[in-house]
Amino acid sequence: MSKISKFFKGGGSAASKGRGGPSPQEALARLRETEEMLSKKQEYLETRIERELAVARQHGTKNKRAALQALKRKKRYEKQLNQIDGTLSTIEFQREALENSHTNTEVLKNMGYAARAMKKVHENMDLNKIDDLMQDITEQQDVAQEISDAISNRAAFGDEFDEDELMAELEELEQEELNKGMRDVRLPSVPSTSLPSRPENNDGAKQSHCSYELHSCITHVQLATQKKAEDEDEMKKLAAWAS
């Protein structure tokens, strides 16, 4: 006999009766003990059945009476074996139900323990204070966002100046540059002597010289016009940068 069964058969049973009923652990131990006993009984009956079959084969028709008696005993053992199978099924079902009940009881007990702990934690919490705290957190987050936006924005230096005045001053500078460029252009001087009514054959050199001076004048004008266009482009870029 195991120590557990001795415990429950002895002082354990008295203790459980004093408490008004066995505990789930005690009942499960008893059921397992019963299953073990019936399993051993099954093995014994199976052995007896094989033995009676051997006796019946041994006697056969030589000793019908002994052979029939052996077969009758085999039938009784088989009947007992079937009964034990049914009993074991019932005990197994009861043990599983008891185990599930015990598990559910433990689960509910632990859930109740957790609920009491949660209640104790929430005793020191005021919902109104929590609402105020969340409102303060939201306000501080808004302030932090405003500060971040202000820091990330580009500093608007020079916003106090009038843009129209700046554009007028820029146009004056542009006009001054154009006037300066026109002053730097030197046109060829007009000859003091009058030109002949028609060119003479011996004056080919003079005609070539005049053509060269006229070409040089046109070149200077083109350079002045090109410089003016470049100055206008620079002024436009400067105005775009200032705006």
TrEMBL record:
Annotated compartments: Cytoplasm, Cytosol; Late endosome membrane
Superkingdom to which the source organism belongs: Eukaryota
Chief place where the protein resides: cytoplasm
Biased composition regions of type Gly residues, renumbered to the chain: 9-21
One CC-aspect GO term: cytosol
Sequence segments annotated as region (Disordered): 1-25, 178-209
This protein's record includes keyword Lipid metabolism: no
Keyword annotations from UniProtKB, A to Z: Coiled coil, Cytoplasm, Endosome, Membrane, Protein transport, Transport
Transferase listed as a keyword: no
A GO biological process held by the record: late endosome to vacuole transport via multivesicular body sorting pathway
Membrane-related topology note: Peripheral membrane protein
InterPro entries: Snf7_fam
Protein family according to the UniProt entry: Belongs to the SNF7 family.
Protein known as: CHM4C protein
